[in-house]
Specification:
Length: 290
């Protein structure tokens, strides 16, 4: 007979306290963010630590900081708090019989080049919806999705699975090499120097791997998360770049077409098992159908 594991009696409030401690600069700020006194926050976290049964905090001088073993508990807390917030917003919309709010994150090329018609149609179909669109790099958007600040995200496919996040493929786009003035690229050993996306971005990792595979030196003289800036740096002769064709070869001062270096996948990311609103489901269907 299989032994049934006794589950600790954890409260959502205690998990919310732990998330606040991780995200705020001080314990006083964390207490303010969740609307309790520092004493109540400390007592709640002490009880959480007792019930989980592993150290969550350690002292560094006079400060209490998160213990290395708290990482798994913190990931669990973030997911539970985010999913509970989803459920509360869903229940509130059902009770008030309105469309509520939808918070969407997209990288720039998704919002401007690939899905502007989808966004326009969606806004036309849902005129009463409180719609918020955040445009930014993939990594911060995924982080905002994980903690419940966004409801769905269109971004570059992460390099590895992310706990609590569900990924659905949308499209594959080509990444090409562009040099100042255009013309023949020559042998890869002579390519560069480069102006690229920041080192911690998913696209930068794809580009660096592809250049290494070609035998091209990856000497980076400038970086920017904004493709328009990289494009202009090439036009100014500062360096070579690798960009999605749709961004490099359109708009003012387009770059000259060049060879395809590789591809990247754009995906739709949502929180796994979240209570999604009808408007979120409708936008997902439009994006996946496009």
């Amino acid at each position: 007979m299989q032994t049934v594991l006794a589950l600790p009696d954890l409260s959502i409030r205690q998990l919310e306290y732990l998330v606040a401690i991780a995200e705020e600069q001080t314990w006083a700020d964390a207490a303010t963010s969740v609307g309790v006194t520092p004493s109540a926050l400390s007592q709640g976290l002490a009880e959480l630590e007792r019930r989980v049964g592993v150290p969550l905090f350690e002292r560094v001088g006079r400060r209490r900081t998160l213990h290395p073993s708290a990482g798994v508990v913190l990931d669990h807390a973030r997911q539970v708090v985010a999913l509970t917030s989803d459920l509360c917003r869903w229940a509130d919309r059902m009770n008030r019989a309105d469309e509520g709010a939808l918070r969407v994150g997209m990288i720039d090329i998704a919002a401007v080049n690939h899905f502007p018609d989808v966004l326009q149609q969606f806004r036309s179909d849902h005129p009463l919806l409180d719609f918020h669109l955040r445009v930014g790099p993939s990594r911060p958007l995924i982080e905002a999705l994980s903690v419940g600040q966004l409801d769905l995200v269109v971004c570059v496919q992460p390099q590895s699975d992310i706990s609590g996040i569900e990924i659905q493929p949308l499209l594959t786009e080509e990444l090409s090499v562009y040099k100042p003035g255009g013309g023949s690229l020559g042998k890869p050993a002579g390519w560069g120097p480069w102006v690229l996306f920041p080192e911690d971005s998913n696209t930068r990792q794809i580009i660096s791997n592809a250049l290494n595979h070609k035998g091209a030196p990856v000497i980076v003289v400038a970086d920017s998360p904004q493709p328009e800036v990289l494009k202009e740096m090439v036009n100014l002769g500062i360096g070579w770049t690798v960009l999605p064709n749709a961004q490099a070869e359109s708009g003012p001062r387009p770059l000259h077409p060049s060879i395809v270096l590789g591809t990247r996948n754009l995906v739709l990311a949502t929180r796994r098992n979240a209570a999604q609103s009808p408007s979120a489901i409708a936008l997902k269907e439009l994006l996946l159908k496009n």
